[in-house]
Amino acid sequence: MLKEFASHGYANASTNRMVQEAGIGKGMLFYYFKSKEELYRYCLEYCIDFISSEYLAQLDLTEPDFMIRFKKAGEIKMRAYLQNPLPFLFLASTYIRRDAPELVPDLYQRLEELTANGLKAMFANIDTSLFRQDVAPEQIINLIRWAIDGWSSETIAALENQDLTDYDWDSTFAEFDELLSALRKILYRRAAHGDCTGE
Amino acid sequence: MLKEFASHGYANASTNRMVQEAGIGKGMLFYYFKSKEELYRYCLEYCIDFISSEYLAQLDLTEPDFMIRFKKAGEIKMRAYLQNPLPFLFLASTYIRRDAPELVPDLYQRLEELTANGLKAMFANIDTSLFRQDVAPEQIINLIRWAIDGWSSETIAALENQDLTDYDWDSTFAEFDELLSALRKILYRRAAHGDCTGE
DNA sequence: AATTAAATTGACCACACTGGTCTAGAAAGG
DNA sequence: CCTTTCTAGACCAGTGTGGTCAATTTAATT
Prior knowledge:
The structure is a homodimer.
Chain A: H1 2-12, H2 15-22, H3 26-32, H4 36-54, H5 66-83, H6 86-97, H7 107-122, H8 137-160, H9 169-187
Helix pairs in contact in A: 1-6, 4-6, 8-9
Chain A binds a DNA duplex through residues 14-16, 19, 24-31, 34-36.
């Protein structure tokens, strides 16, 4: 169901394909859900719950070092995604398609709030004294974000055509650590002795 | 036509909507194109031609300073996009939907080649001696790419809900320049006197 | 003006597929 | 044995599809 909605959008999702994919009779679907609309709403709630509990609620927002915090967040997200990617795909799909505006009137507001709260918390209480001082800390945070996002999306894109059953994750993680250490070298204060940035 | 294909994909694009949007009779479409498939192929060729001539062919690949080269490329792309955004949207749509695989068998290979050649040329003959030496130059190139990509997509996303008729572009460009100077400060060799990275 | 040719329209077609219903029966439980 | 809960899939009216075609307007040519 989630897959059908995610890949075709609400309007073009076919209940016939759903029951075929699920291997059940058409009657069942409309026995448990009185309409396609109700099914959609149920899926929505399920996905929001899943992502809230398996991803957002797991974030460690106390870690002052932004890079560590962000790295942990990435691992949590990846774990949740690998456990069940469909809620992510479903919500991303509804969000970018703007598919069901009057179907669930306050949906987009809720999604905005969800991500906005997540992001706000993500960027709150960061120890900016770790950063180099000659570039604005917001700029540094952006650079870290964009670097990690860019690396992630390119890595995921590269993995998409692979057989992941016996994939060598270690080298991927090593690559990620390399990226992080480069970021630290570039964006953080030089450790202790002789801060040659001049402050 | 491009808009219809771009926003619905080949299968769900409606020839009825196309003729309505274009304000012509249904007959005309099938007078000039014998089928939806032929129309699609024509659109494809048109878009590839447009992007090749108005974007890829305009790139200045001699500029040794990567950041300047990339900045110019961004401006060229933006100019082409503003002149006619539909080819970009059309090709992006076909590429991500993987919509017409057996319709145009060698399509994806051609698109891969197009972008691959573009990217390869884009990253060839770069003067890496301008970069700081304590981080691998490929890593630096990636960081610049990701930063510019991230900034661009967030800026575009923010602009999408705006009225652009009398938008203040100067502040946007200024923001972009700020980003570039931060990148230069962070990723390039310190100019001349006292290179404190120690080589 | 008369005739031929090109361009244009929209009603129309068979067909595919839609969300949803409903009958008929299988399972389960008492 | 009866009742209740599940389950299946044939079926329905409706909508939209890509594509056709006879009819008509417009343009070109003689």
